[in-house]
Design goal:
6 strands; 912 residues; 4% strand; 5-stranded mixed barrel; OB fold (Dihydrolipoamide Acetyltransferase, E2P)
């Protein structure tokens, strides 16, 4: 800095400066300059003070004392001296630059910008002034203006590595990491030892998702400055993204150890603990940060979020309220209060807090998203749509706001807009099952049922326990007429959530109606209505099946005893599912189709039960009735209603061996044996098949009512009545004119084929008029009860249990070792995915790890840090596997795996 001693400055007071004072001032000024050059800053400051006292108008003395105070770290005193010098000489470029730099160092970017601008007005080619003003503008939140200043500084000095580094940082602030990468790379070419450029390039790599390069730059920067805690903390955060939590926390621990009194480092380590799910250490770190910097609103909000995640709602609310008191313009504090109210389902109370958060920060994207959630819960879809749209505009890469908007579009009927959002979400979150679930629902509403099934199936592959997707796929299957598949999905859904019980019973009623079990079907619909009285599908299904039953007549298998048994089963089922608070039932959007009016049937079909004799071989199966050609069969009528007609199983498979449902009564083996005996033609059929012999002369006919028969023995519940083929009764003999007691009929000599004893009495009783009206129907009802008991559909619990425990049937070429399966994906992922994707495979190998809590078992592979993750349908099955033991596991291979990480097999069961 040069000084013009010949320049005369006006005095700051009315006192004039004489020649003696000027000489004294010069002496002190020379002494101060000598001390300053020798590094004696305290003595230099004293000599400059004496000089100023001798001559208060000497600007260079104030400026030089300001330089000394700056060297001593007395920044406020230095700013005061520079200001005094500028009051004497406002156009001193060097003083303006010095004061501007001090303003920037003390966090006052606006005054700094003014000083640098004034200096540039005097010298437009001052490169350092452009660089300093660019730094001040960057700190003031003006990255575009800062880029212009750095560009001008680079033009004036193309070899200025710092200017390139600063412009790269400004590009990062503006959201252009690619441009930043070029500038920072150029800065390192000019100065390979500029660790600040390495740190900022690592930040650019992080924004571009290139975490490995970011980690390498930070490691190189730490080689240049190994004791920099900020660099260690930055590398720890990058390692978190590289899925190396232990190494990340080690870096953060070392950073905190280097500077344990920095609250920001504690907060950064706390956020790292949150990201790996260690909430208790995270709360400790935020509490320590608050101890070092009490009542900091950011730390209070961070600790409140951790407490909210751990369920300490009241403590979390206290932190959020305290943060809002400390800084009433801090939007996250009000956002946190809203999250507490949302957690309590108090959406009306959350909305004012979110309004305040948005007022503090109009670009707070998640505040708009949360308010949209509240509006949707309060049945205000239009407001929810506006807020969700605003959230998407502020953060186009966010998944949750766009997913919420797609859901709202579905509810308000804007299918095209919803489809556009879902298509974008598939690109943003290809592993999100909720996205495919929403698109499946949309495809269903658009009438594209096959596409809906595909999307819902993908959702279930990504999340096999996604109960709502499973139930919705059942509804789509119903729309496609695939009622067995729909029943299977609802069986699995009701095992996970009781709210699907009513719809499960509706679907089972449809299947029973399609197989001709009308009473069983009606019972299912009645129980469904008991669970959900407003279920339209159950009401309509009951009407359809009732019309079918009335038009066709009662099925022999649907007896009164079977109705009573089903009612008892239903009562037990309802008793098992009942609780203090019943969940809101889920309802499918598909209802049974309309039914055409049935045509009248032949009279003899309606009088089937009143036939004089019944042949057991002609008893209709439980699965349907036999109908003459030319008539409308029950099967055809069911097809007209839209119900799938399912053919009856073969007779050999009528009684499959399966464990009974929890509430099914045990089968009486003796009664079952009696029914099997009843299915064979009894010996008495020989006399019924013979034609009656002609009588030589008429004999008086015995009147049954004239005699008092012995009381008939009470038949056992499952005693079969004799059921020979229908025969023509003998012609009635003329009645005598004079009534007289009928003589006791003796055994005829030619009646040697009639059985004697109790069996003969039963035959005789069955052939009598009273027997035909009472005994045969009663026995027929008993047989029907047993048939229904053996052939009735199994319960949802037993069906799900059987499906979960039955081993897979795996093709021979799909059985291999875990090593062979791994090597196939390692060699050619595309070919392996085509061969095994979405296929059932059986893998054998050693168990590396087992987690019964998640139902996951990991098989060993040739890779040390990679394995084959197998997720079991029943989580408790994973507890049977121990690390190091050999195992055989069968499951479905997930599609689209590349072999770069762990391979995944879902829907697993223990192998054979």
């Amino acid at each position: 800095m040069t000084h013009d001693h010949s320049t005369a400055f006006p005095p700051t007071s009315g006192r004039s400066i004489g020649p003696a004072s000027g000489r004294v001032a010069d002496q002190h000024y020379r002494a101060a300059e000598e001390a300053y050059r020798g590094g004696e800053y305290e003595r230099a400051a004293a000599e400059y003070t004496f000089c100023i006292q001798a001559n208060p108008h000497r600007a260079e003395a104030f400026a030089r004392r300001g330089d000394v105070c700056r060297a001593l770290g007395r920044l406020d005193a230095a700013i005061s001296d520079y200001t005094a010098a500028l009051q004497i000489n406002p156009r001193n470029e060097a003083v303006l630059l010095g004061r501007g730099q001090l303003y920037a160092l003390t966090g006052k970017p606006r005054p700094a910008i003014a000083d640098f601008s004034a200096a540039l007005d005097m010298n437009p080619d001052n490169g350092p002034a452009y660089q300093s003003r660019g730094q001040a503008r960057a700190r003031a939140g003006e990255p575009s203006a800062a880029i212009l200043d750095f560009t001008r500084a680079i033009d004036l000095a193309p070899g200025n590595a710092v200017a390139f580094a600063e412009r790269g940082a400004a590009f990062i602030s503006r959201g252009d990491p690619s441009a930043a990468l070029a500038d920072l790379t150029r800065a390192l070419q000019l100065n390979p030892f500029l660790w600040l450029a390495l740190a900022r390039r690592a930040e650019a790599y992080t924004q571009l998702g290139r975490y490995e390069q970011a980690g390498a730059d930070l490691t190189e920067a730490l080689r240049l400055d190994s004791q920099n805690p900020d660099l260690l903390a930055a590398r720890g955060e990058v390692r978190l993204r590289l899925k190396a939590p232990e190494a990340a926390l080690a870096d953060l621990d070392e950073a905190v150890g280097l500077n344990p009194h920095d609250p920001a480092l504690h907060a950064r380590r706390g956020r790292a603990h949150v990201s790996v799910g260690r909430l208790d250490p995270a709360e400790d770190d935020f509490s320590e940060a608050l101890r070092l910097k009490p009542a900091d609103p950011e730390f209070l909000v961070a600790r409140g979020e951790v407490r909210l995640a751990t369920g300490r709602i009241d403590h979390a609310l206290g932190d959020f309220v305290e943060a809002a008191k400390r800084n009433p313009e801090f939007g996250p504090a009000f956002h946190g209060q809203a999250l507490v109210y949302i957690g309590r389902n108090d959406y009306a109370m959350a909305i004012p807090c979110l309004d305040r958060a948005i007022g503090c920060d109009p670009r707070f994207a998640d505040a708009f998203h949360q308010r949209a959630r509240c509006y949707l819960r309060l049945d205000r879809p239009e407001d929810a749509l506006d807020d969700a749209t605003r959230a998407v505009e502020l953060d186009p890469e966010a998944v949750l706001p766009r997913r919420l908007r797609a859901d709202v579009y579905l509810r308000v009927g804007q299918a095209d807009d919803a489809f556009a959002d879902l298509a974008e979400l598939v690109n943003l979150a290809p592993e999100d099952p909720v996205v495919y679930h929403l698109r499946g629902k949309l495809e269903f509403r658009r009438g594209r049922l096959d596409s809906a099934v595909q999307d819902l199936t993908v959702a279930l592959k990504l999340n096999p326990t996604f109960t709502e997707a499973m139930a919705d796929r059942a509804g789509v299957y119903r729309g496609l007429g695939k009622h067995r598949e729909a029943l299977s999905d609802l069986t699995a859904a009701v095992q996970q959530d009781a709210k699907y019980a009513a719809e499960y019973l509706v679907q089972r009623g449809i299947v029973h109606g399609a197989t001709g079990e009308f009473n069983h079907s009606i019972a299912d619909f009645l129980v469904a209505l008991a669970l959900d009285p407003n279920n339209k599908a159950a009401v309509r299904g009951k009407e359809l099946v009732t019309q079918l039953r009335d038009a066709r007549g009662p099925n022999a298998a649907d007896s009164a005893e079977a109705d009573l048994d089903r009612a008892a089963d239903a009562a037990r089922a309802l008793g098992g599912m009942a609780g203090p608070k019943r969940a809101r039932p889920w309802r499918s959007l598909i209802e049974p189709d309309e039914l055409e009016a049935p045509r009248p049937r032949k009279p003899q079909r309606r009088q089937l039960a009143a036939a004089p004799e019944v042949d057991l071989a002609s008893v209709p199966d439980e699965d349907g009735f036999e109908v003459d050609e030319g008539e409308d069969s029950v099967e055809v009528m069911i097809e007209e209603t839209g119900l799938e007609v399912i053919p009856p199983p073969p007779r050999a498979a009528r009684r499959p061996a399966r464990p009974p449902a929890p509430w099914v009564e045990p089968v009486d083996e003796e009664a079952e044996f009696e029914v099997e005996e009843a299915s064979r033609p009894p010996e008495t059929r020989r006399q019924n098949k013979k034609a009656p012999r002609p009588e030589p002369r008429p004999e008086p006919v015995e009147r049954p009512e004239a005699r008092v028969p012995a009381p008939a023995p009470t038949p056992a519940p499952f005693v079969p009545p004799p059921a020979p083929a229908p025969v023509t009764p003998p012609p009635a003999a003329p009645v005598a004119e004079t009534p007289k007691p009928a003589p006791k009929k003796k055994r005829r000599s030619d009646d040697d084929d009639a059985p004697a004893g109790l069996r003969g009495k039963i035959n005789k009783l069955a052939n009598s008029k009273w027997g035909k009206r009472t005994v045969i129907p009663l026995g027929f009802l008993c047989i029907s009860y047993l048939l229904y008991d053996q052939l009735a559909g199994e319960s949802p619990q037993s069906a799900a249990r059987r499906g979960h425990t039955t081993p897979y049937e795996v093709e021979g070429n799909k059985k291999m070792t875990a090593d062979a399966f791994w090597n196939a994906y390692k060699k050619d992922p595309a070919a392996a995915s085509g061969a095994y994707g979405d296929q059932i495979v059986e893998l054998s190998g050693k168990v590396r790890a087992a987690d019964p809590a998640t139902g996951m078992v990991v098989l060993e592979t040739p890779a040390k840090d990679k394995g084959i993750r197998c997720f079991f349908i029943l989580k408790d099955k994973a507890s049977g596997f121990k690390p190091g033991q050999p195992a055989v596991i069968a499951g479905q291979v997930n599609e689209g795996q590349t072999g770069g990480g762990d391979l995944t097999v879902g829907q697993c069961k223990p192998g054979k």
